[in-house]
Design a protein that fits this description.
The protein is built from three helices and five strands. The protein has helices at about 35-45, 50-60, 65-80; strands spanning about 10, 20, 30-35, 85-90, 95.
């Protein structure tokens, strides 16, 4: 029996959770599902340009797990772009990090 997955820490859910190629009706499209934790790994590594060790620490996971997440996310996005598929962002084992929102005595710290 596999070990249960640890919750991955993310800064928030994406503002938009669905992307599709223009000009193709939604009923004719296949979907690729990108989990919220995969989305967060892309944000940290490719947009914020944080190295894998620090990004893994921010997400509360190991560096090898982070590497698997980023590899999976990039493969799904490449598949969607090359094969004209829609990208849906949802699910996965994650917990939203409220750091910096000014709540209580422990604000600004990871729990």
């Amino acid at each position: 029996m596999p070990r249960p997955r640890r919750c991955r820490r993310v800064m928030g859910e994406p503002a938009v959770n669905y992307f599709k190629p223009a000009g193709i009706p939604i009923m004719q499209l296949e979907e690729v599902v990108l989990t919220v934790d995969e989305f967060e790994s892309l944000r940290l590594k490719d947009l914020e340009e944080i190295d894998q060790e620090k990004a893994a620490e921010k997400m509360n996971i190991s560096q090898p797990t982070f590497h698997r997440l980023i590899k999976s996310a990039r493969k799904k996005i490449a598949d969607a772009l090359v094969n004209s598929k829609a990208i849906k962002i949802e699910g996965g084992p994650y917990k939203i990090d409220n750091r910096g929102l000014g709540r209580g005595r422990r604000r600004g710290r990871y729990l």
